[in-house]
Every structure is written in structure tokens, then in C-alpha cells.
Design a protein that fits this description.
With 153 residues, this protein is an alpha+beta fold. The chain has helices spanning 3-7, 17-24, 82-85, 107-116, 118-149, and strands at residues 28-32, 37-39, 47-53, 55-62, 66-74, 78-79, 93-96, 100-106. The protein has one domain: Jelly Rolls (Sandwich).
């Protein structure tokens, strides 16, 4: 795994080369074919996923309606970061939208390096908060649009 790839991912773009090397030592690469399920809503969350090629569909199954795609994530995007902070179940399904290669980092491994290097932990947690804030704004915008189209608001 090359530090250049990881440096392009916003979750890690503030890390030094030495810090990136520590993270890289903990990563694993996983490859998926189109249609492969990475995880299901309700599964235990235990790792962060970073897309190095391909596309992953994040969706929810709505009873009586079927699958509702929430987003299609592509190269450089990451997901599953909430599992790094909370012991909660996955809140959606993740499926390979096309053949994809991903890097994964387990919760335990990332927690151990964050505990060992507080400065790196601070940088990673700051990015985590930025990600949650951005995604919350996007969700609010989607809800506002939905309500506007349905006659609400």
C-alpha cells in the first residue's frame, strides 16, 4: 500500500509521512465483485473502509418498497467511520456497485495507534468530526428538499 493513495483520502490528509506509515502498517486490502455485499444493516461495525478503486452503494431496505440507494461512493471516499467511535450496528447496507478494491482498518488497530500517538489521534478525530458535520448538513439538505417537494415546510 502506497502512502500517496492514503494521503489523497481526506480522512488522513493531515497526517505526516511517518504517521501515514503507521496507519498503512495496519491496513488490509479487500477486493469485491459487482453485487458483493460488504455488510448489512444491523451487522456489527468493526472497521473503516476506504475505496481505492470502484464504487460502493450505500442503501437501506424499506419494507414494502425495496432498496433505496442513499449514495454511491467512489475512489477516495470512505465509510464505516462511525464504527470506529461507537459500538453500534451498521445503519445501512454496503454493496459493491461495480468491481472494487478497498482498504480496511479495524477499530482495534486504529484505536491502538491513536492511544499511542495522541497528536495523530487528535488529527484523525478532527477529520472524523468534520466528516460527521458535512454528512449531517447533506442529510438536512436532503430532508429539506424532500419536505419541500411533499408540501411540507
Amino acid at each position: 500500500m502506497d502512502a500517496v493513495i492514503l494521503k489523497k483520502v481526506s480522512f488522513f490528509d493531515t497526517l505526516s509521512d511517518d504517521e501515514l506509515s503507521e496507519v498503512i502498517a495496519l491496513t488490509k486490502q479487500e477486493d469485491f465483485k459487482e453485487g458483493d455485499r460488504l455488510f448489512n444493516e444491523g451487522d456489527k461495525g468493526d472497521k473503516l473502509y476506504i475505496i481505492i478503486s470502484g464504487a460502493i452503494r450505500i442503501s437501506k431496505t424499506i419494507p414494502g418498497m425495496g432498496e433505496e440507494a442513499l449514495s454511491i461512493l467512489r475512489t477516495g471516499d470512505y465509510f464505516g467511520e462511525m464504527a470506529l467511535i461507537e459500538d453500534i450496528s451498521r445503519t445501512a447496507d454496503a454493496t459493491a456497485h461495480e468491481g472494487s478494491s478497498l482498504i480496511t482498518i479495524s477499530k482495534e488497530d486504529l484505536q491502538s495507534i491513536m492511544d499511542k500517538d495522541r497528536e495523530m489521534g487528535y488529527k484523525i478525530l478532527t477529520k472524523f468530526v468534520e466528516t460527521l458535520s458535512r454528512r449531517l448538513r447533506e442529510t438536512n439538505d436532503k430532508l429539506r428538499s424532500f419536505f419541500a417537494m411533499s408540501g411540507g415546510f
